[in-house]
Amino acid sequence: MASTRELLDIAIEAEQRFEGERWEIGGIHTWLLARFALGIPAPPAQEQESEVRALARRIRQRVAAERRLVEAAWKDRSANDRLRQADVVFLTHTVCRQLERGRFTNVYTTPFADELRARGAALLSIELPFQADFRYPRAEPSIYFPHWLKWLGVDDPLDAIARLTRRLPEPTALTREAHAACRDWLTRQGAATELPALATLQSQVSSLLLLRGLFRRLLAAARARAGLLVTYQVLEGLAFVLACRDLGLPVADVQHGAIRNHVAYDGITRAPSGGYELMPTHFWCWSESDAAIIESWNQTLGGSHRVLVGGSPLLQRTEERCSEARDEIDALLRASGKKRYGLVTLQPGAANAPPDWVLQALREAPSDILWGIRIHPMMWSEEDAVRARFDRLGAGRFDVTLSSRLPLVCLLARTTVHVTGFSSTVLEASSFGVTSVTFHPEAPSFYPDVEAAGRMNFVTSRDEMVRALEAVSVAPTARATSHFGDRLGELLGSSPVS
Q1: How far apart are the C-alpha atoms of 36 and 277, rounded to whole Å?
Q2: What is the Cα–Cα distance from 162 to 181, expressed in whole angstroms?
Q3: What is the pLDDT along the chain (498 residues), one digit of tens a residue?
Q4: Which string of DSSP letters, residue by residue, matches 184-228?
Q5: How far apart are CA 60 and CA 75, in angstroms?
Q6: How far, in Å, CA of 72 to CA of 76, rounded?
Q7: 53 in helix, strand or coil?
């Protein structure tokens, strides 16, 4: 499979060869839709599915998803928010919720909501149901994405039919020619990725225009001063950005992981005059090194976007909130007879699971380390299987339950060493002075700055990992001062809405 960097290089070359900044469909500069698709490896060849079977499968999936949504909204109805006035509207995902003390907390919206509340302002959270995965009971109120459609007047059957039956937006002649030439070039290159069909791009733009109008009405009804979102590159995110721009509102994409070599954040080489309307006005970054990735192309292309270095929302927890968690970790260490705490962050997907040699290295690591196994937010359904796998390695040496439920910032404050494939927790651990030992081939290309600073070791064998773990003995240091509140104030200060 092609690496993330290889896919980005393909996107960059295509962008330059076929004048990506000039692609337009329905008046929207649409190269970004193609660019994002080129960042995804082509799926393996499968038996062709008939149109009838494909339609039936999609209908079954949609019905199942709607059933789960209704079930979640009903069972957790006390946490259903309403469309109301809010200074900031935050578009997020259901899988951004992490289980903490029996309730699912949105680790991205909550820090912003707390900061806004301290300023006498309010936040409204809109959650997109990622893969129909609903996390409840919710610790904070939110609106599930489809449920607010009724407030925007789209439950009129005639209106819905009119929208669904309208003609697809037309591409320019240049776009048609460049698209055909690009697909031919990718085929001749034997590229490990695919460009969507032109009809697919047209359909995506049609959906964008519909969603843009819906979000515009929602933002106007909320009298929002600014928008925030996670993963602007999904279709709903792009429409949300368009709606904010229509209303003259600043809108910031909040970094949610590593952005180096990511097609949505790195290596943009060409852009229309004034920038892409599908890109947010602001990018919220975790660190100066992350910001430099965006600024490297932003300044070259005219500086149309502003970068805010506000830190990771996952680390914005007060000392008061962490004191109880710290006591729980200390109690866990005493009960296990261990002196140090090591954190292992897992990632979804069988290809990203720790191989056997990594597990063996953890068993052979210094015996005074208790390993906390933190499952990824998209792995909650696998928790029991993960616990069983690590229990087989050695009772009393691994903890899954507490380490998957306590806030990340509280765990890092007690962590001696961090182990992962290529999780972006490498960046957050580095801010605490904690060294990460990584084992996935992509890690060095994602975190060269952390590796150069001596806070990441990439290993390829059991012996290398054991040596790396034995060499780590420094306790975590105090984290650098955060500018979270200052950067949020800067975002709100750029809003024309008082």
Answers
A1: 15
A2: 34
A3: 789 999 999 999 999 999 999 999 999 999 999 999 999 988 776 666 677 787 788 788 878 888 898 899 999 999 999 999 999 999 999 999 988 888 999 999 999 999 999 999 999 999 998 888 899 999 999 999 875 554 444 444 444 444 555 678 999 999 999 999 999 999 999 999 999 999 999 999 998 998 999 899 999 999 999 999 999 999 999 999 999 999 999 999 999 999 999 999 999 999 999 899 999 999 999 999 999 999 999 998 989 999 999 999 988 866 566 788 888 999 999 999 999 999 999 999 888 889 999 999 999 999 999 999 999 988 888 999 999 999 988 878 999 999 999 989 889 989 999 999 999 999 999 988 999 999 999 999 999 999 999 999 999 999 999 999 998 865 556 565 678 999 999 999 988 865
A4: HHHHHHT-SB-PPPHHHHHHHHHHHHHHHHHHHHHHHHHT-SEEE
A5: 22
A6: 6
A7: helix
Reduced to 3 DSSP states, what percent helix, strand and coil does the chain have, rounded to the nearest 5? 50, 15, 35
CA dihedral 54, 240, 283, 487 (to 10 degrees): -140
Q: Rounded to whole angstroms, how far apart are CA atoms 79 and 238?
A: 27
Query: How far is Cα 488 from Cα 311, in angstroms, rounded to an integer?
Result: 11
Q: How far is CA 299 from CA 273, 274, 275, 306, in A?
A: 13, 12, 11, 10
Sequence-ordered list of residues with C-beta below 8 angstroms from that of 99, at least 6 positions apart, any chain: 105, 135, 380, 404, 405
Distance CA 140, CA 112 (A): 12
Please check whether residue 98 is in contact with residue 411, taking contact to mean a CB–CB distance below 8 angstroms. Answer: no
Helix (H, G, I), strand (E, B) or coil at 113: helix
Identity (one letter) of the amino acid at 304? S
Yes or no: say if 27 and 202 are a contact pair by the CB < 8 Å rule: no
d(CA 295, CA 273): 17
**What is the DSSP track for 131-174?**
GG----SBSS-BEEGGGGGGGGT---HHHHHHHHHSPPPPBPHH
Place of tokens 């494939």: 421
pTM metric for this prediction:
0.92
Q: Return the residue matching tokens 């809003």.
A: 495
Q: Compute CA distances 314 → 255, 344, 446, whole Å.
A: 11, 17, 19
Sign of CA dihedral 442, 445, 447, 451: positive
Query: How many Å apart are CA 150 and CA 218, to the nearest integer?
Result: 11
